[in-house]
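testing teh design pipeline on a random one, pls ignore if ur not involved
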């Protein structure tokens, strides 16, 4: 198979059953698709599963894809949607687990003595319940002392959006922690500024 063939020619060859065209198309786009999926998922194994699913879909739809349009943007759109569906599915599962956990273990009350280990365990559960971007921004800015501008560059969002995520994370953490930790809450949520 000629490496110089464009994606539309490879798709046409794939639709005709040419396995070499399939291999070349995958080789041409797998790295970028995997890097994109890994950035969205935060996990290489999940990213590889998503990219594999995206390429299977491309293989199944090779005959019907619009060859006048570039293949890579279509593939990245599929990767993005699959990653979003995976995140949504996991969020639903986490919500169900949280609901179940709240019904079975409401956690200690503020008037009960706690040791540092149980404080940490409770804080970890509260952090895990935050939305992904709030948790990521809070972790980097407050817990790891990364500059707001650097976090903004990492996620390609504005610095004000990072501050907003940090503010909301603090607010939600305080709501979750104050009934249990009382005055110790500020130890875990930091001061009032976001960097």
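output:
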């Amino acid at each position: 198979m000629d490496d110089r063939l464009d994606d539309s020619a490879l798709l046409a060859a794939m639709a005709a059953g040419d396995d070499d065209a399939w291999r070349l198309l995958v080789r041409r786009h797998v790295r970028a698709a995997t890097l994109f999926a890994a950035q969205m998922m935060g996990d290489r194994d999940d990213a590889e599963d998503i990219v594999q699913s995206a390429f299977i879909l491309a293989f199944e739809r090779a005959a019907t894809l619009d060859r006048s349009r570039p293949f890579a943007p279509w593939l990245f759109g599929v990767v993005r949607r699959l990653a979003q569906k995976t995140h949504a599915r996991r969020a639903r599962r986490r919500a169900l687990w949280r609901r179940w956990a709240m019904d079975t273990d409401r956690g200690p009350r503020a008037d009960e003595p706690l040791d540092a280990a149980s404080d940490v365990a409770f804080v970890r559960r509260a952090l895990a319940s935050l939305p992904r971007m709030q948790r990521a921004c809070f972790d980097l800015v407050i817990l790891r002392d990364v500059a707001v501008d650097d976090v903004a560059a990492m996620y390609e969002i504005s610095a004000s959006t990072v501050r907003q995520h940090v503010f909301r994370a603090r607010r939600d953490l305080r709501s979750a922690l104050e009934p249990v930790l009382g005055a110790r809450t500020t130890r875990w949520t930091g001061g009032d500024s976001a960097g």
